[in-house]
Amino acid sequence: MYDQARAQQPPDRPSQRSEHRPAGPEPLLPADERDKITLRLRRALNVFADAPRQALEEAEVAYDDAVTQLANALAERGRALREDWEGRDSATHPDELRHALREYREITQRLLRA
Question: Can you say whether the dihedral through the CA atoms of 66, 36, 31, 81 is positive or negative?
C-alpha cells in the first residue's frame, strides 16, 4: 500500500515504523512462508469478481498449504519438547521440567485460541 507521508521522507531519515516485534510467542511458521500463503489468499480475493472458481481454487490451495505447514511445525515442536524432557533422568531439577510444561501449556493454549 502506498504511504504518501513515508514516500516524502528523505532517504536518510529513519522510518517512523517500529522494528520491534510485539511481545508474545514466536510465530509457528517463518515469515517468508506466512507471506507466501497470505499472497496466495490475496490473489484469490483479487480475482474473485472475474474468475470465482479460480479464486476458490487458489484459496483452497492457500488453506491446504497453511494447514500442512502448521501441522508440520507443530509436530516438530512436539518432537523437540519431548526430546528435551524425555531424555532427562529422574534427578532432573523440577524447574527444568516446569519449563517444558510451560511450553506445552503455551502452545496448547495458542491452538485453542486459534
Answer: positive
Report in angstroms the alpha-carbon separations of 52 from 46, 49, 94: 10, 6, 56
Main-chain dihedrals φ then ψ at residue 14, nearest 5 degrees = -65, 150
CB 11 within 8 A of CB 17: no
Alpha carbon 4 to chain centroid, angstroms: 29
The CA distances from residue 25 to 21, 51, 78, 107, 109, in Å, are: 10, 38, 15, 9, 11
Grid look-up 527444568 returns 96
Q: Which three cell numbers stand for residue 49?
A: 469478481
In this predicted model, what pLDDT tens digit does every residue of 38-77 receive, in sequence order? 999 999 999 999 999 999 999 999 999 999 999 999 999 9
Q: Which residue in this structure is represented by grid cell 521440567?
A: 97
- pLDDT tens column, 13-46: 444 444 555 566 778 888 999 999 999 999 999 9
